[in-house]
Amino acid sequence: MSIMNSKIEVLDFSKKYVNHQVVLDDFIITKRVNLIVGKNGSGKSTLLKAMAGLINHDGAISYIGKGCYMDEVFSYPLDVDLYSFLELLNATSEIPSETKRIDKLISYFELDNKVDETLNTLSKGMKAKVNLIQCLLEDADFYLLDEPLSGLDKKGIQCLKRYISNSESQFIISTHLDKDLIDISNAVIYL
User: Fold this and answer.
1) All domains in the chain, ordered by first residue
2) How far does Cα 38 stand from its chain's mean position?
3) Which end of the chain is flanked by fewer CB atoms within 10 Å, N or C?
């Protein structure tokens, strides 16, 4: 489904909050793996939420294709087991994935032995992997990942990097830790 090197344009972007305003210079994203790097409050999460259509903003963001968004903060029904949770998400999708995709992602992120455990029993790192899986479950042209390294250990980071490297989709990733992803990125945007 991927549109290799699709173009995402951000023009005259601003978002006003009570205590501050995020204003970004115009830019165009055309590369496959893009890092959005900046300090706290620079607008990384705001930009990704705006790209996902989750918040109102001034200016324009244009793109072609389907995107999927992963929020940095994961909040799930804690009394549901991992596999049932992913099946429920899949069932609510406009175009449900094959069960094989759920199984493949669970295996890829090494959670095979956790499928029957409730989400509240998982460690922070395992919940971070579930957060990635729930986003990657959808077949998309581009993925918006907000601080995906948060909570992941070195092995989890390697799994994510390998997944991104093997995918044909475009990735826009906000991060404080650009050194961990710089080797797989095609472009870095500093805010």
Assistant:
1) 8-190 (3.40.50.300)
2) 17
3) N
Burial label for 20, CB within 10 Å (0-12, 13-18, 19+), is: exposed
How far apart, in whole angstroms, are the C-alpha atoms of residue 122 and residue 153?
A: 14
H/E element, 49: helix 44-51
Name, in order, each residue with C-beta under 8 angstroms of 48's C-beta and a sequence gap of 6 or more. Answer: 36, 69, 144, 145, 146, 172, 174
Count the helix, strand and coil residues of the chain and give each as a percent rounded to the nearest 5.
35, 25, 40
Q: How many CB atoms lie within 10 A of CB 81?
A: 15
Return d(Cα 66, Cα 176) in angstroms, integer.
Answer: 26
Instruction: Give the torsion sign (CA, 187, 158, 101, 146).
Output: negative
The model's pLDDT over 19-63, given as tens digits with 9 standing for 90+, comes to 888 988 899 998 999 999 988 888 899 999 999 999 999 999 999
